[in-house]
Amino acid sequence: QVNIVESGGGVVQPGDSLTISCAASGVISDEYAFAWFRQAPGKEREGVSCIGTRDVNTKYTEAAKGRFTASRDRANNKVYLLMKNLTADDTAVYYCAAESWYPCSSTWFPASHFKSWGQGTQVTVSQ
């Protein structure tokens, strides 16, 4: 059983940067891949980034490419998402998800592929 807790969300202004975190427990090896998803009001959940099993691959969707950086702290079972130059379009609930033996070999990593989810953290970008 993998338990996930996200934190670090908040209200920021356009152009600001923000780092959100994902703490995982029950994960004892590097077999797990971690992905970030987000869901804006009235929209479907969309993928943002994916760090694959054993960190072999890190992929970003178009929404994140060039502005977001995902990273993993193996020693502490944490995953981070650094978001730069935020805009109102980035306003959403951000979710961390984990799945075992998942390569993240492409920018297509549907939410249905991930079994373990956190409760989400709200990021609001507003003047």
- The number of helical elements comes to 0
> What is the helix fraction of residues, given as a range?
under 10%
Topology order in helix (H) and strand (E) letters: EEEEEEEEEEE
- Summarize the biggest pleated sheet: 7 strands, mixed
For the terminal residues, how far apart are their CA atoms? Answer: 40 Å
Structural class: mainly beta
Radius of gyration: 13 Å
Overall outline: globular
Arithmetic mean pLDDT: 95
Could you characterize the architecture of this molecule?
The chain is mainly beta. The chain is built from no helices and 11 strands. The strands form 2 sheets. Strands 2, 4, 5, 6, 9, 10 and 11 form a 7-stranded mixed sheet that branches. A 4-stranded antiparallel sheet has the order 1-3-8-7, with no helix packed on it. The chain is globular, with a radius of gyration of 13 Å. The model has no long low-confidence stretch (mean pLDDT 95).
Task: Give a quick summary of the entry.
It contains no helices and eleven strands. It has 127 residues and is mostly beta strands.
What's the topology here?
Blueprint: E1 3-7, E2 10-12, E3 18-25, E4 32-39, E5 46-51, E6 58-60, E7 68-73, E8 78-83, E9 92-100, E10 116-117, E11 121-125
Name the features.
127 residues, mainly beta, seven-stranded mixed sheet, four-stranded antiparallel sheet, 0% helix, 48% strand
